[in-house]
Amino acid sequence: TAVTAAGAGVTTITLSTDDGAVTSYTSTGGGLVLGATMGTAVTFTGGAGADAITIGATTKANVMGAGNDTVTMTDLLGTGGSVDGGAGDGDILVINDVSSNGFNNPAGEPRVTNFEVLKLGALANGSYSAAGFTAIGQGNTAAAVTYTNVAAGVDLAITATSAETLDVTLADATGTADVFNISMNSKALID
What is the pLDDT of residues 32-84, one digit of tens each? Predict the structure, then answer.
């Protein structure tokens, strides 16, 4: 079964009891948000809207389209699988439940392309290269995390309190006037 979401508004599918019957999702309107992880053999094709999906060990090529989209990865890509953030300028890649032991360099993975923002989800842990990303984001993680190869001028957004250590290493340690901005979405985060 092929599912197409059209219309000006954002379509949200939180859970489908027949998800195993779906072979593809296509977004042609204001955006499509999937609340559950797509099956590994399901294809997603995005449009101009702001789409949001979660993928596991996908074996399909998924292309997000022109909107500012969000893709959450819960596993390493399967054989033949890929994800393209599309033509937006604020596409977000969220690494969740993917240990850095197997996926420590998202920008160096040729099957993951066209993302500008790297965020770590609640189950991420380890060290991740932020090479090529223009912004990074941090919530509460499962263990200590490190961002490496962070370019000067890249901003860090902290979105949740965490008892874990967060380290950031700039790509060029010799800079004398580098700027690194940290924003927090709540006053409680600095208590």
Answer: 999 999 999 999 999 999 999 999 999 999 999 999 999 999 888 999 999 99
- Here the tokens at position 182 are 């940290």
Does pTM top 0.70 for this prediction? yes
Give me the sign of the Cα torsion angle 97, 100, 103, 105: positive
Residue that has been written with the tokens 């709540």 in this structure: 186
CA-nearest of 133, 81, 80, 65 to 105 is: 133
Strand duo 24-27 + 43-45: pairing: parallel
List the one residue out of 134, 140, 131, 141 whose CA is nearest residue 169. Answer: 131
User: What residue type is 116 in one-letter code?
Assistant: E
What's the CA gap between 86 and 170, in Å, rounded?
Answer: 27
